[in-house]
Amino acid sequence: MLHRPLGGRGRKRSGPKIIYDPAERLPVLKLVWLASDQLCRKRLKPALPEWLAHYERRTAPLTEAVKKKLLAISPAQLDRVLQPVRGRHPRKGLATTRPGTLLRGQVPTRGGPPDTRKPGSVEADTVAHCGDITAGDYVNSLTFTERFSGWPANRAGWNKSRHALLGQLTELEAKAPFELKNFHPDNGSEFLNWALYAHLTGRKMKGPFTRSRAYRKNDNAHCEQKNWTHVRQLFGPERFEQPELVALMNDLYANEWRQFTNHFKPTFKLLKRDKRGRKTVRIYEPTPQTPYQRRLDCPDIDAASKTRRRQEHGQFDPFALKKNIERKLQNFFTVLSHMDGEPTKT
């Protein structure tokens, strides 16, 4: 070793030949990853074909070689290619549910796990935009999630009055692409009241009205997840105590945010749980899908409804939706800062 001549060739790198040049792939993947709300690798992989099609329409066509490699890239390789930008782009409450006692006898708890095989079964919950203090008046967001497809919808309202919440629920139900067949909220008093009970049980098409057990968040797990991904990650933990903010939030919830999350953000769906000895193994669908894709693949949904969804989907551009979401958020926090007398949030 000591007598080896200087300037000799170094040790050859072991392993397979590198086929993904980061300098060539990173600009495309970075733009798609940021625009898709930083999807994880397993959700970004099945979303790439549609996102790349919109990328080419907005920028320039990719060469066949580059496009072929991007579509063939594995989830693990996506993580490695995006590693340099993850650290520079990190992702940017209090519980106010109080158990209702008024209708606990009339509204039963659900028996057993939820049925996610048929469309129309809905979970609902509210998110308080109260900051660190639950006293006083502030904005609340209603989260409305279908179990089968994972189709979420949100509306903001002032406080948790039963009549305000009933109005939000009626609007969401009228605009949802499915018929409400089963309604399952949490155990909060904003849901266990006579106004909502009469609305759900006094109509022609009656469906089961069940509730979660008190202090058992997993009874409403599908909706609790959306409270974080669709409300907290969008608006943050700040306190919103100005009624004027409700209209701005609903403008975003009802338009770009609904279109973006339901049509371009795949999610995993839990298929079943297997008990193996002392362990419980969760089995998910092999390929994540968007709520829009799940509804197209469902044999229980009529062809006319699917045609309307396809026509609606063809009008959307995920990059334009993301740009409008950021613009409306900037305007929202500018208005909020002027009301609070604080610097604009960036």
Structure description:
The chain has 346 residues and is an alpha+beta fold. The protein folds into two domains: 22-86, no CATH class; 121-340, Ribonuclease H-like superfamily/Ribonuclease H (Nucleotidyltransferase, domain 5), CATH 3.30.420. The protein is 44% helix and 12% strand. It contains eleven helices and six strands. The chain has helices at 22-35, 41-58, 64-72, 75-86, 162-175, 194-201, 221-235, 245-264, 291-297, 303-313, 318-340; strands at residues 121-128, 139-146, 152-158, 182-185, 270-276, 279-284. The strands form two sheets. The protein has a four-stranded mixed beta sheet, with helices on both faces. A hairpin with a 5-residue loop joins strand 2 and strand 3 (152-158). The protein is globular. The mean pLDDT is 83.
What are the key terms here?
single chain, Nucleotidyltransferase, domain 5, 2 domains, four-stranded mixed β-sheet, 11 helices, 44% helix
Question: Which stretches are poorly predicted, pLDDT < 50 over at least 5 residues?
Answer: none
Q: Summarize model confidence as the mean pLDDT.
A: 83
Q: Into how many domains do the coordinates divide?
A: 2
Strand order of the largest sheet: 3-2-1-4
The number of helices is 11
What oligomeric state is this?
single chain
Number of strands: 6
Give the CATH architecture of the largest domain: 2-Layer Sandwich
Largest sheet: 4 strands, mixed
Can you say what the CATH homologous superfamily of the largest domain is?
Ribonuclease H-like superfamily/Ribonuclease H
Q: What is the distance, rounded to the nearest whole angstrom, between the alpha carbons of the first and last residues?
A: 58 Å
Percent strand equals: 5-15%
Might you state the CATH topology name of the largest domain?
Nucleotidyltransferase, domain 5
Q: Structural class from helices and strands? A: alpha+beta
Helix coverage percent = 40-55%
Helix-strand topology string: HHHHEEEHEHHHEEHHH
Radius of gyration from the alpha-carbon trace, in angstroms: 24 Å
